[in-house]
Design brief:
The protein is of the alpha/beta class. The protein folds into 2 domains: about 75-165 and about 265-300, D-Maltodextrin-Binding Protein, domain 2 (3-Layer(aba) Sandwich), CATH 3.40.190.10; about 170-260, Periplasmic binding protein-like II (D-Maltodextrin-Binding Protein, domain 2, 3-Layer(aba) Sandwich), CATH 3.40.190.10. Helix content is about 40%, strand content about 20%. It contains 12 helices and 11 strands. Strands 1, 4, 5, 6, 7, 8, 9, 10 and 11 form a 9-stranded mixed β-sheet that branches. A two-stranded antiparallel ribbon has the order 2-3. α8 (about 200-210) links the parallel β7 and β8. The longest helix is centred in the N-terminal third of the chain and has 31 residues, at about 5-35.
């Protein structure tokens, strides 16, 4: 009997199509089951790529930390009519002359800033361990005192671009250490070196003079030397020559090279980008005009303010 191929082919195609469909369904079900397996149930290859990047588990996440609304310091200062500046006496940044008027490089910067803002200025004197807390407690609006930039300070306050680059020098007592004419001669047992309570200065002093006795003092380290309580003092300044020249019978410079050098800047509270941006723009204008460099040169050689 002759088969009708015209009708037989479609029946075969339909049967084959159903078979293919079932095969696909079963394959998908198998894949789904494999995807649902725990990682430990999956087969693991015995080969490992030595250059492959190791997977790192994601760190625990925390909820976003929201800041409270910040004070607009620039607007507040202009409305108040007074700029409150935190200062610490350190030559030649902040000093008092014989009439007890504030003078120095940082004082010039602060006075010019206040003049450009059209407000009066109020200096709030403090000490290194208190000047930043006074800023954070809103007792001052800005710190302008040759404050060194470092990581611990930058974590709690924002620094502007540098106002100046200072050196850390060893200044020795002429009555007590006149025979010790070098840094190595002062790095000896029995020599007492005064340093401020600033952690950065203490670290440098202890690293450079491990054999001497490095003593942090709350007073001005140079005053401690003058009073005969230390052979030398570590002093951060624009120019050690000017400091020594102000009292050549009291002090001398064992080495003209600084122990270390760092940048100083203004400091403001965090969370106020407008005030920080204004101060950075203002500093850039003073730098481009040459005024900032002129003031730095003046105070690097002047003995004005030294008593």
């Amino acid at each position: 009997m002759q088969m009708n191929h015209t009708h037989a082919f479609p029946r075969f195609a339909r049967a084959g199509g159903w078979a293919l469909t079932w095969a696909l369904v079963l394959g998908l079900l198998g894949a789904t089951a494999a995807w649902g397996q725990a990682p430990g149930d999956m087969p693991v290859s015995a080969w490992a790529d030595p250059q492959a990047v190791k997977r790192v588990l994601p760190a625990d996440t925390v909820a976003p930390i929201l800041r409270p609304p910040a004070v607009d310091t620039l607007a507040t200062v202009r409305q108040r009519g007074v700029l409150r500046v935190g200062v610490v006496q350190v030559a030649p940044m902040v000093m008092q002359d014989r009439s007890n008027n504030y003078v120095g490089f940082s004082i010039d910067v602060a006075r010019r800033l206040a003049a450009d803002l059209g407000v009066r200025i109020e200096f709030v004197e403090s000490w290194w361990t208190e000047v930043i807390p006074h800023l954070l407690d809103d007792r001052t609006d800005v710190i302008i005192t040759g404050l060194w930039m470092n990581v611990p300070r930058a974590l709690v306050a924002n620094f502007t671009q540098p106002t100046a680059s200072e050196g850390m020098y060893l200044i020795a007592s002429r009555p007590l250490a006149a025979q010790r004419r070098s840094l190595d001669a002062l790095n000896q047992p029995g020599v007492k070196i005064a340093v401020s309570t600033d952690p950065a200065q203490q670290a440098v002093a202890k690293a450079r003079f491990p054999r001497a006795t490095v003593t942090p003092v709350d007073d001005d380290p140079l005053l401690v030397v003058t009073e005969g309580r230390a052979h030398a003092a570590v002093v951060a300044t624009l120019a050690a020559d000017a400091v020594v020249a102000s009292a050549p019978r009291r002090w001398f410079l064992p080495s003209p090279e600084p122990l270390a050098r760092t940048s100083a800047g203004m400091a403001v509270r965090k969370g106020d980008p407008d005030f920080l941006a204004f101060l950075n723009a203002w500093l850039e204008m003073q730098r481009e005009s040459g005024w900032l460099l002129d003031r730095a040169r003046h105070w690097a050689t002047s003995t004005e303010g030294f008593r």
